[in-house]
């Protein structure tokens, strides 16, 4: 389990690193003093877990999580403030530890993390990725469709919902884009940015875009930006 410590206080980072020495399954692969440093490290090191402070100079820990593209690591918040606890769990936090961190509470959080990992591994082993050939049932209000995934050219995040684009239809389903990303076959569907997953079979044109990104035009007419970070992954995946 690769972990990243994100905290603007050096002493707090050192103390947490010392406490984590008692948990050999947790490998600290890096530290960041603010959200910008953390974003770069998440992109380069792909941690499984963040020990994340909330109040930091510049962006908060919450803002950091909204800017991570692709799969978001598991999160254990570490903070001196108890008033953010409810908001923290809106971000699917595994736990919320108050400073100074109690070793027993840290052990509880790590045990919960290990249980969640075992549960997720079991689900992955018994789950089948959805391919372009699979058909899914979609219901939006009074309307229903039984549509082949290969016909869906774009998945667009709309808060807690995802809008599907197929034919001339754009129904909403109650599901997060992250949850869909885990279920869709990556050979057919690509996470272009925080808000969009595109069907690679529907890509009509690709152009260079700002800051090292790409602009993809789909056969349905939609223009979707592939962010700089995802553009690197896209080029690696699609190149010979």
Automatic annotation (TrEMBL):
**InterPro entries associated with the record:** CheY-like_superfamily (IPR011006), LytR-like (IPR046947), LytTR_DNA-bd_dom (IPR007492), Sig_transdc_resp-reg_receiver (IPR001789)
Keyword flag Phosphoprotein: yes
UniProtKB keywords:
Phosphoprotein
As stated in the Swiss-Prot or TrEMBL entry, residues carrying the post-translational modification 4-aspartylphosphate are: 53
Among the Pfam families in the record, one is Response_reg
Q: Does the keyword Cell membrane apply?
A: no
Under Gene Ontology molecular function, one entry of this record is:
DNA binding
Q: Which SMART domains match?
A: LytTR, REC
Taxonomic superkingdom: Bacteria
Q: Where is the Response regulatory domain?
A: 2-114
Q: What protein does this entry describe?
A: Response regulator
